[in-house]
Amino acid sequence: MKHVDNTILYNGKWLSLKQTAYTNKNGKEVKWESIERTNTTKTVVIIPKLIPSNTYIFIKQYRPAINNFVIGFPAGLVENDDLEKEAIRELSEETGYHGKVKKISPTLYSNPALLTDTVNLVSVEIDEKMEENKNPVQCLEEEEEIEVIRVKRNDVVNFLRQEQKIGTAIGIGPWYVFGDTVC
User: Fold this and answer.
1) Mean pLDDT value across the chain
2) Do 10 and 96 reside in the same domain of the chain?
3) Domain assignment of residue 183, yes or no
């Protein structure tokens, strides 16, 4: 494959629709459309665990693209290269909790056929006995509507199935981390 050209088909406030031309293995020019953010392509997805209760934090957030609420993990755009700091900032904004980063994945791609975004998964432990975590307060942006949900580890699969049963969409992250395997 050889890259030939990029053309911006649409440029909005947050997203661009890009057409990429490339030559395939037979030398034929092929065109492919993709979506790219206009502000950053780096994201973090936080997997927060409350200690010592072994309870995980999920968010239920309205997503206009599917006109539904989705169960997912706290996540957000990375504004600088300090992934640890950015993950803690996003966790605090969306949930009100404060924690410590335990692990950061390598840079991953969630849907490279369509999106140029990269993602780092960040495991965070939250000491629920700390004063700052006893009554967490979210700091949401105007367009965000996020409900914080705490679920014991052993109850996660049932929780996800129940939410789906009542019509809530389930994000790929929670099911991939906690769900029954497909195989």
Assistant:
1) 95
2) no
3) no
